[in-house]
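Reading a protein record of the kind used here takes only a little practice. Each token is a code from a learned vocabulary of local backbone shapes. With that in mind, consider the following protein and its fold in token form:
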Amino acid sequence: MDKEQNHRDDALLWDAFRRGDEEAFELIYRTHSSTLLSYGKRICPDHDLVKDALQDVFVEIWKRRENLRDLHTIKFYLFRVMRNRLTLLMQNNLTSYGDDFPEKNEDLLSPSIDFILMEQETITHQQTKLQEAISSLPSRQREAIMLAFYEDFSNEEIAKIMGINYQSVLNHLNRAYLSLRELLTEITLLLSLFLSYSFQKILF
């Protein structure tokens, strides 16, 4: 199914949700909750706080459904709201997170990613190394890489989700790319594909 069709389906589903259709709300939750939970865990070390943020997001959008704007991409919207809500909760424990505290995006409701790599046994070791390398990146570089590669958001969408400008996204991706090249000495096909894809994001 192409993106245009996905956007049409999202628009219809969102419209039903805004009218109070509980089945539409449940479908939105089932479709996106696990991905949002995984995303939250990548930017916040307190997984209980991530779960609280996720619950708050869906409670809040249900309460405010009649006043929410039209949209075409539910996933993109929920990622932004989830990030803002988690940022707000983390703000209460700012000293606990240091550099991992995300930049806040002010223009939304106050406030997954299941990163499944190729499963062939022959590249299990490389998968582990790649995951370890990504996990070792600074939080904003790690988040940008995850949104770009695993969730396939455009650079413009990443900028809006993270609450930063377009050039900052390019900078984060470029630094992440260079760091991964230094961290990973075993350049396999998997790594080459990953870095090639990431580099295209940097250029475009």
The two ends are 24 Å apart (CA to CA). Confidence is low (pLDDT under 50) at residues 104-123.
